[in-house]
Amino acid sequence: MSLLQPSAPPRRRGRFARRARVLHGTARDARVPFALHRSVSVIVPAYNTAPVLPEVLSALVHRTGGAVAEVIVIDNASTDGTADVVRELMASDPLIGVTVRLLENPENLGYGGSIKRGFAELVPSAPFVAVIHSDQQCEAAATLIDMAAAFALEPEPDVVLASRFRDGSVTDEYNLARRLANHFFNAFTRTISGLRMSDAGTGIMLARAGAIDRMPFMQLTSGYQFHPQLNLLIYGDPELVVAEVPLCWRDATVGVRFSLAGYALTLTRMLLTFAWQRRVRRRPIGEAVVATSRRAL
């Protein structure tokens, strides 16, 4: 496994909006490797993000250099008309209409539950699977192109993760308390697991479907700790080449709100359970991660 990064961005990081404008140029579109053209299926979990979701979908469909073959929006029983907004957009924009598919959860399955449903839909047939959030915490098109560009590197990766804490990342508009909590859990996860990762909780990714298929993802939590669990599996698999790219990240203005303290407490219990399973019970990493699911409800 190796940690890779595309050619370094300008040293001046600046504000999120300035960085995003640079990433949206046509030169950036040319960085999508030929092998990924019309090959990426994108999972977009959505909960109460009706005001901003149209821009996310438009960016993914129209401004990703031809990488996107399909987008699956998984509406997690939103109460703000998110599903209706998606249907209206599909009806008004022909390209979005043929590219986007809407799946509606009959009830709130949890964030991880939506991702698991998306993986189950796509992994059997799609060559590449990405996860992009619906709340505009990152610029959807620019981020996907950055991750796609990493597949032109050597050795060619199996999984690319967008990291908020690589050199070149921009987090000026990300809540300070959350940043500090992320730094703590990044260090804690590296200490507990012995795995090198710069952003243990990132949920923005692009991977070969075969790499996802290696993971027991249906046995992971349906809560917000899904990605910390999945990332342990990804980085802990010696057969996978893992790349990281910098990420521009900001606070969401819509969508679900959750308790940072509650999330941190659950994640701490999960990581301690993982350490017990790995270091005391000597379980393989996959079994140790699955055993943490009861701590990540």
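That was protein one. Protein two is written in the same sequence-then-structure order:
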Amino acid sequence: MHGLLLAAGAGTRMGMPKALVRAEDGEPWLVRGVRALADGGCAQVSVVFGAAAEEALPLIEGTGASAVVAADWAEGMSASLRAGFAAAAGTDADAVVVTLVDLPDVSAAVVRRLLDPPPDARTLRRAAYAGRAGHPVVIGRDHWAGAGGLAAGDRGARDYLATHEVELVECGDLATGADVDRPQA
């Protein structure tokens, strides 16, 4: 299983790229995201960088994650997703678990739940919180070209997922799944 942590955006509402944000305890959100994917069952994790990539790269040193830089990151989440798919295409992974850096309460427990039963190349599965679809999303290899092809701007796999049968896995008992777009008070 290959985990993709999308962390390329400029974070304009946050006031800084989210790849550089740290939790109150000082831990980078990047490290939390990598740990959630790795401890959740992803043997490989790739972090997709864009804005402030040079500053953010050192934050994942020692995590075991590999870095992917989306040169066209300013186009939006779609560029990050395509870069992640390209990185995973060179592996033997049947599926990827895609999550976002700005979901600091999504833990390994959420990822583990999404990976049970083990996904295959046909899988489309996503976490739900109180019945509302969210991230992470498990996308089987058979869907990478289609999802990447429909991705545009800040709409990653959303349009593709809307036209396909996707298994929702309730995770509201494990996390809120809420993305953090603004500095916390």
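Helices lie at 29-40, 53-56, 77-89, 108-114, 144-150, 158-162. Keep this in mind for the problem set.
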